[in-house]
Amino acid sequence: MSEMQNESLLPRYSFNARLVAGLTPIDEQGPRDYFIDRPAGMKGYVLNFTLRGEGVVYYPGRQFICRPGDMLLFPPGEMHHYGRAPGCKEWYHQWVYFRPRAYWQEWLNWQPIFAQIGFYRPKDEHQESFSTLFQHMIDAGQGMGHYDELLALNLLEQLLLRRMGVLSGSLNLPLDNRVREACQYISDHLTDNHFDVASVARHVSLSPSRLFHLFRQQLGVSMLRWRDDQRISQAKQLLCTTRLPIASVGLHVGFDDQLYFSRVFKKCTGVSPSEFRASVNQS
């Protein structure tokens, strides 16, 4: 089982489980010294944590060097093109492929390095705790039973929550409860065609202008942009995991007009919903 886990990022490996985790040790000219190249990404998320050496992630016209302690999060459908960094003799990284629980969405909005590939680097004093959690998750994920997978998912949830806790503790201004309530309200009303900023503001007892300013200040985007991001994130999941027609996917995430849904989807992802689904099915 251990060997299978270490080989599960090989090309053509079938990711059928809810969670698969492992450690990939890449040495120069070793058996794993090749680049992963998935232009259409995967159907689930991949979280990568560099332990030793350096890796490089390529994106059209850009690249990012992964160093010990760096964590990268690849969302569904995001391009994968990475391997050992040229000039470095090794790249050892822990990783987990997973399909998230529904309520994890807020915890998976990471600061991007480019496109939607998220980045996080724990401070030195937190590095060991994150690596230990990752290793416990790998150990649990290598078990064969139903409860082993549940344990691995719970450990992954701990890791995501630990990151959220560290971020909240390090910010000069912790996330305002009214902004958090606004996010929850928006998430609960994604399909509401009568949505407007005023309705959210009434819900959190603020004026629309004050909430607009506070929301952008703390999250870096407007409420409408944040709402569209949540809708498109859910649409990508549906396109990856169901055979619903494009129009039905749009309706499920709050778009009555298929053409408008396609325009917003392409603006956020760079491709149309049909192109996105076709690329995922080919991967």
UniProtKB/TrEMBL annotation:
Residue span, HTH araC/xylS-type domain: 180-279
UniProt-listed Pfam families: AraC_binding (PF02311), HTH_18 (PF12833)
Transcription regulation recorded as keyword: yes
GO MF terms, alphabetically ordered: DNA-binding transcription factor activity; sequence-specific DNA binding
Keywords, sorted A to Z: Activator, Cytoplasm, DNA-binding, Transcription, Transcription regulation
InterPro entries: AraC-bd, AraC_XylS_family_regulators, Homeodomain-like_sf, HTH-like, HTH_AraC, HTH_AraC-typ_CS, Tscrpt_reg_AraC-type_HTH
Gene3D superfamilies: Homeodomain-like, Regulatory protein AraC
NCBIfam families: PRK10572.1 (NF007860)
Name this protein carries in UniProt: Arabinose operon regulatory protein
Organism the protein comes from: Sodalis ligni
